[in-house]
Recover the amino acids of this structure.
């Protein structure tokens, strides 16, 4: 089973794009703290949210927003020119997302379809 649960903060605003066949994708990344004290480190995860939820939620996925992400980890062999020899690239395909508070000053969840997101 490939299931990943993360709580972190968006490192920049989500970017909405469309695939060649017209599917919506919101790309974003989150920073997740791991460990405590001197052993604390931050891990960055690239994430993609697909379909209607991508267009509905893109405006709420803003830099600094704390989110809960549930999804599966996808692995691709890295491009040696970009990542270096033997390096790999990982991305989370988001199945569920929950926002801690509103986006861009909007604390009202009524603007978003309840099936799209949960505000905590």
């Amino acid at each position: 089973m490939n299931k990943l649960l993360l709580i972190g903060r968006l490192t920049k605003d989500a970017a909405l794009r469309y695939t060649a066949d017209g599917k919506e994708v919101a790309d974003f990344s989150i920073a997740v703290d791991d460990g405590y004290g001197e052993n604390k480190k931050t891990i960055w995860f690239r994430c993609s949210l697909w379909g209607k939820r991508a267009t509905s939620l893109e405006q709420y996925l803003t830099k600094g927003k704390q989110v809960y992400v549930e999804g599966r980890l996808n692995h691709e062999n890295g491009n040696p020119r970009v990542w270096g020899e033997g390096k790999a690239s990982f991305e989370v395909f988001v199945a569920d997302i929950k926002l801690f508070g509103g986006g861009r000053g909007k604390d009202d969840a009524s603007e978003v379809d309840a099936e799209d997101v949960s505000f905590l």
About this structure: The beta strands are 4-10, 15-18, 24-34, 41-50, 66-77, 88-99, 118-119. The domain at 4-97 is CATH 2.40.50.140 (OB fold (Dihydrolipoamide Acetyltransferase, E2P)). The first strand starts at residue 4 and ends at 10. Helices lie at 52-57, 80-83.
